């Protein structure tokens, strides 16, 4: 089944180019195009799609703001004439970031990444023991099994995800709030402004500290209720 795509760009010529490029891929179906970002955002709220091509600089709202407003975001490929939004695209875990004028070879590489990621996500039959999240790390999307997570540490704009089967933590650009939205509440808890722990990895709780197999983490004052919850 072809990936359903939407393109949003306030430049008609840019949209025509994307239409021409997408038409060369039988695995893509361009269902709508919009020159108006607000109309495009409204359509996306009502109609789920697989892949969004969106310009960054638009007069009403930016492509970055548009993506942030979506509750269920599709895969994103940003298109822009400016390089200074690369950080935002990385933060939003975009599949790719294409600079205008867009070369077809570069466009093809971005589409292939999107297709591969879509196949990867949908080829796995998830079971309870194989629940997972996907994070962007080292310029690629990585699948992390929830059962492997021991704890997560906030490092400013980044997170370090510590795994029981890997001495080196996975580094990803993401906020604590965002990762908590991905994690099941009955399996993980925030114990400090800088730490989230996997509940089944806790060995003991003593003197306002959580002891894990490979770490001892403090319980913050704002999260002291966590101790009572574990007792209950």
Write the layout of secondary structure elements.
Layout (H helix, E strand, L loop, with lengths): L2 E6 L3 H11 L5 E7 L2 H10 L4 E5 L7 H7 L5 E6 L5 H6 L4 E4 L4 H19 L9 E6 L2 E6 L3 E7 L2 E6 L2 E8 L2 H7 L5 E5 L2 E4 L5 E3 L2 E3 L4 E3 L6 H7 L1
Parallel strand pairs: 1-2, 1-3, 3-4, 4-5
Antiparallel strand pairs: 6-7, 8-9, 8-12, 9-10, 11-12, 13-14, 14-15
Write a structural description.
The protein is α/β, with parallel strands linked by helices and 232 residues long. It is 29% helix and 34% strand. The chain has helices at residues 12-22, 37-46, 63-69, 86-91, 104-122, 176-182, 225-231, and strands at 3-8, 28-34, 51-55, 75-80, 96-99, 132-137, 140-145, 149-155, 158-163, 166-173, 188-192, 195-198, 204-206, 209-211, 216-218. The strands form four sheets. A five-stranded parallel β-sheet has the order 2-1-3-4-5. Mean pLDDT is 88; it is low at 125-129. It comes from Pedobacter ginsengiterrae. Keywords: DNA-binding, Phosphoprotein. GO terms for molecular function: DNA binding. The modification 4-aspartylphosphate is found at residue 55.
């Amino acid at each position: 089944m072809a990936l359903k795509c939407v393109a949003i760009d306030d430049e008609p010529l840019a949209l025509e180019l994307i239409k021409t490029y997408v038409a060369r891929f039988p695995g893509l179906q361009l269902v709508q195009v919009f020159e108006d970002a607000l109309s495009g955002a409204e359509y996306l709220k009502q109609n789920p799609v697989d892949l969004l091509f969106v310009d960054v600089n638009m007069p009403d709202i930016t492509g970055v703001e548009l993506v942030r407003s979506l509750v269920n975001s599709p895969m994103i490929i940003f298109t822009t004439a400016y390089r200074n939004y690369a950080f935002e695209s990385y933060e939003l875990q975009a599949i790719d970031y294409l600079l205008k004028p867009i070369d077809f070879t570069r466009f093809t590489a971005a589409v292939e990444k999107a297709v591969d990621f879509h196949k990867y996500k949908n080829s796995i039959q998830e079971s309870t023991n194989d629940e997972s999240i996907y994070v962007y790390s080292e310029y690629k999307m990585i699948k992390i099994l929830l059962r492997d997570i021991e704890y997560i540490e906030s490092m400013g704009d980044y997170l370090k995800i510590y795994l029981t089967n890997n001495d080196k933590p996975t580094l990803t650009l993401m906020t604590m709030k965002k990762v908590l939205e991905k994690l099941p509440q009955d399996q993980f808890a925030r114990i400090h402004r800088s730490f989230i722990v996997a509940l089944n990895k806790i060995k003991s709780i003593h003197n306002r500290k959580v002891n894990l197999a490979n770490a001892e983490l403090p319980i913050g004052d704002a999260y002291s209720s966590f101790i009572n919850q574990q007792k209950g």
